[in-house]
Description:
Order of helices and strands of chain B: HHH
Number of strands of chain D: 0
Strand content of chain B: under 5%
Helix content of chain B: over 70%
Radius of gyration of chain B: 16 Å
Distance between the termini of chain B: 54 Å
Low-confidence stretches of chain B: none
Shape of chain D: globular
Oligomer: heterotetramer
Mean pLDDT of chain B: 86
Number of strands of chain B: 0
Distance between the termini of chain D: 45 Å
Number of domains of chain D: 1
Amino acid sequence: MNPEFILGLVLLLGGTIAAAFPVPKTYLNRLINLEISAWGLLLLMLSYNEALALLTFGGVSALSVYIFVRVIQKKEAPA
Amino acid sequence: MQEGWIAVNNIALMAFGALAIIGALLTIVERDPFRKLISLGILVGGSVPFIVDRGLLDVAIAVALIAPLSTIFILMVCGRGDQ
Amino acid sequence: MTPQEAALAVCAVIAVYAAIRVALEPDTLRKLPFLNVLSFAVAGSIALLIPHPLSIVAAAAYFVGSTLESNAIASTYAGGLDRRE
Amino acid sequence: MDSILPAFARILVAAAVCWLNFILIDLFFRLPAGGGVVGATAIGTHIERGGGAIHGGYMMGNIVSSPDASAGTLLASCGVYIAGIPGGLLATFLVFIGNRICHDRGYAGTTGAITATFIVWGFSQIGFSPAEFIAGMVIAILTIQGISHRHSSRLLAYLWKVREG
């Protein structure tokens, strides 16, 4: 139980709840709150000392944010 | 002296953990997207020293360069703020 | 108390102070100078935590990334995306 | 080797040296004249709206949105702390690359990093530690950007008026 583990769990749970129930209920707020839980998962992986997993997760997380952004742009565009 | 060094390191890491908690709470509480992204910057600043303290410096470099990239991606959805 | 410990303590205290000032500032664009103070403090403590040659690169990468983020937020807030898009 | 001054007094001396270094170089490269990018101009306007002076606001906006002499001083102190003079020159190169990424010419940051490298190295020969200069630079940027935007922007505008003559 090192500090990274506890901090990661707190961030993961808080970010997930905040992404499920965002206060102004927009897609953008859900996406930003999802970033909190992404950082919590990164700290959780850090507590197991997995360097390769951290690198891969960082890259894939940025890629998935880009895909979400494209989806939101297509959804909110005036048809 | 060695114990003193470890103790100061631990106190500094507690401060950075507090930084991450402040950033996460602020990101959840704020309502404007720009203010949420600035608070996310506080969260990143609190998390990177934990990666450095483990000795994973290459991971820290990659993460510190990828985090602003995803912020810029999110900014593509935000319109301009109220002047 | 060695110089490294004193410097690390100063950096950590200033980082927490800057975060509290960011939380209390009402104007959105005037939050960014406080965020800049925070990234100075974090970049300094990255170099102070582990004295290894690669940590210069880590501190510079963190600092440049944070500056780029502030720049993009300020440009988008001021009026439309800049030419980076 | 033990110096007469205690650690925190030496940190304050280092803060004064770093403050003079980066303020003089930023004034020399005309940072308060105007915003370099759109975001810097917007930050200056908001600071003026909050009761500050416009030229000080431009300079604070430029410090926020591109690595200038203050960032050069900090990273050069980190480099000298870790690896001596070569570390400082490596930090200078990284600051130059960072300036290029942020759409800036990059003269202020590079010059500040080079002068700071030799200043910090010189002070480390007479009993100061480079770690104290890292903390000193953080305190120096705190006095400009983090205490009160109104008063620091007025101080910077006054210095800019003095430099303009």
